[in-house]
Amino acid sequence: MKIVLKLFASLTDYLPDSAKYTNFVALELAAGVTVAQVIEQQGLPEKWVHLVLVNGHYVAPTERSGRVLQDQDVLAIWPPIAGG
Fold first, then answer.
1. pTM
2. Is CATH 3.60.150.10 correct for 2-78?
3. β pairing state of 2-7 and 74-78
4. How many Å apart are CA 43 and CA 54, to the nearest integer?
């Protein structure tokens, strides 16, 4: 199955160089892969994975290991953002 992974802010450092300006990459995954598995496979530090959306819907940290991705899903991840 194919999904789109979008990473924002400092997490774009974990994208391939060719995707750093578009902030997304298409991934080919096995069926049954969860959000947590994609986060781990991409080497994203858990402390930097803050806001997670699948197709625009929030996925709480406690739901990520059980949330199975489907073909054509868009997984978007933001780090914690500080501001003033």
1. 0.93
2. no
3. parallel
4. 19
